Amino acid sequence: MEQKNAWETYDENKMKEVFSFSDSYKEFISKCKSERECIDETIRIAKANGYQNLDDVIKEKQILKAGDKVYANNMGKTIALFLIGEEPMENGMKILGAHVDSPRLDIKQNPLYEDQELAMLETHYYGGIKKYQWVTMPLALHGIVVKKDGTKIHIEIGENENDPVVGISDLLVHLASDQLTKSGSKVIEGEDLNILVGSIPLTGDSKEKAKATILKLLKDQYDVEEEDFLSAEIEAVPAGKARDYGLDRSMIIGYGQDDRVCAYTSLVAMMEMKKSNRTCVCLLVDKEEVGSIGATGMQSKFFENCVAEVMNCTKDYSEIKVRRALKNSKMLSSDVSAAFDPNYASVMEKKNSAYFGHGIVFNKYTGSRGKSGCNDANAEYLGELRNIMEKEHVIFQTAELGKVDQGGGGTIAYILAQYNMEVIDCGVAVQNMHAPWEVVSKADVFETKCGYVAFLKHA
Ligand code: MN
Ligand code: MN
After folding, report:
1. Distance 433 CA to ligand 2 centre (A)
2. What does the pLDDT read at residue 409?
3. What architecture is domain 104-238?
4. What distance in angstroms lies between residue 254's CA and the mean position of ligand 1's atoms?
5. Side-chain half-sphere CA neighbours of 93 within 13 A
């Protein structure tokens, strides 16, 4: 089967559209490097597009009707956006669901120490990473510190050109003969991912003077004490902006594109919808990279409760109607796929790989080995989606993550499928997935946004 290269179908105007869409996407991922920052920015965009906070709607006893737009913010880390449709919600919703958490290094609860006059921070990595990729590169710190009285202090250090950055060292090659015989997973070990943050001794007679300097600086600049780390969430992420990649600028290199590329395209698609027959939903969730657990992960009751609340606000609530609304829904689990990489062709099966420039990727199933742990979408659903994509001239491809028995992975798809709705994995192909800097094709980002719009219009 021949699959189309999107670039070959674009005229000059379309090219301009693709590149300008990529610019706004680059801005989004350059600015939003933590799940909290993604949700803050989503709320800003949603409000500008007429979305109201569901809490206010409930408090003011407003009645929601077709065309109304609301969002529900779950602890600043997960959000559900609803565009109320003309049909009763029990007829089902059209759901786009992506995740906004990405692999990173979290600062530990008691992180700061001094060793041989160097001030260091302990980290605990989050998500699946190749640890050796995270050394010798500029890192930025993003997050919040919560004081005992509830005051929240926002931390963002290392993104402005004049900001300092921090980082993790690697052993010089001259002394690495032992290290270089180790297997890839042991070359850099998790407990050795310690960040160097300072080296000037504080004048006076404190014991650990380099550490004292950092503590003084935190106190002066942020009003943060050492104990405040206990109630902080600070993430070390690659510092710097997303950039054009390739001499022809056809690609984007940036941090956290799994899965913010699908989160952004889902959000934009949602914002483009002004009305709909059935209710449209955009779900941006946390904790996918660690199993979708916890109050802000997809396994939480948050979304189900939101659906009940929204239905209640439309004055059309009952327990059975909520269940029907979920069961009758259709979902695109918007997540990234592995892009074919000529450097590592041996792990891919060429006929069933995702290719840069070949558009939005549908993964009928994911999982490992004999499809273990996968969500296997129904052929009937795929048939319908093919029709929708063709109707709107969206360029799409189908793929598996890699060769059979080579590895595998999963998404939030199976969790929504438990409500008995139709769900399929679908998103953007990525090279270097989970590396500090991931790469996508601009054509795919654009086609994915168009695919999501097509789904919201016609599913
Ligand atoms: Mn993902
Ligand atoms: Mn991932």
Report:
1. 7
2. 83
3. Roll (2.30)
4. 15
5. 32
Give 281 Cα–ligand 1 centroid separation in angstroms. 19
Across 263-286, average pLDDT: 98
User: Band of the pLDDT at 2, cuts 50, 70, 90?
Assistant: confident
Provide the residues around ligand 2 (an ion) whose CB is within 5 A. 258
pTM over 0.90: yes
Same fold, 6-102+255-458 and 104-238: no
Q: Report the separation in Å between the CA atom of 331 and the middle of ligand 1, taken as the mean of its atom positions.
A: 16
Residue 434 Cα to ligand 1 midpoint, Å, equals 9
Domain boundaries of the chain, sorted by first residue = 6-102+255-458, 104-238
Using CB atoms within 10 A of its CB, is residue 126 exposed (0-12), middle (13-18) or buried (19+)? middle
Q: How far is the CA of 206 from the centre of ligand 1 (A)?
A: 46
pLDDT digits (tens, 9 = 90+) for 13-31: 999 999 999 999 999 999 9
Topology adopted by domain 6-102+255-458: Aminopeptidase (3.40.630)
Cα(346) to centroid(ligand 1), Å? 22
**Could you read off the pLDDT of 136-184 as tens digits, one per residue?**
999 999 999 999 999 999 999 999 999 999 999 999 999 999 999 999 9
